[in-house]
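Our preliminary data section would be incomplete without showing what the modeling component actually yields. Below, a chain of 180 amino acids is followed by its predicted structure, encoded as tokens that our downstream tools consume directly.
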Amino acid sequence: MRIIGGKFKGRRFNPPAKNWPTRPTTDFAKEGLFNILMNHLDFDEIKMLDLFGGTGNHSYEFISRGCKDVTYVDKFYGAVSFVKKLSKELDIEDQLHIVKSDVFKFMDYCTDQFDYIFAGPPYALPTIDSIPDLIFEKDLLKEDGWFVMEHNPNHSYTGHPNYFQERHYGKTIFSFFQHQ
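Predicted structure:
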């Protein structure tokens, strides 16, 4: 995996993820997503939440592009340990708030609001379809913010009241949501 933009552009990182329950976003899909985000977000000014953060792929991209306030959430010890180690190596510990927690429990107690939320849940997660509703019910997204969820073709959110577009990159789909 590599960071595709910003001050860490080209930096490769190889998590020891052989037996991890993670599915990192491909560079191809990530590049497509960030081409969209670059035209919409001012990375220097936003507060970002990375749910099911896994290897920290999205968190690093945001910090590399100037984001100073990123919250990473994952419950898998190996992934959290890797992200802590890499954040120290990159000297981004002040910008990256690492939370080891079940995402659903985190959403229950989180009182912050975010300009941008990314969720990359396991595709087979039984409660995957509840995530968009919970983001809005828990009031985690600022009024003019964007929520993006990565999923596969087995799920569709086109009927969700806050859905506004989706982009396909092979079998990876990003559904975009905002307050309507």
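The radius of gyration is 15 Å. The domain at 45-177 is CATH 3.40.50.150 (Rossmann fold). Preliminary results of this kind motivate Aim 1 of the renewal.
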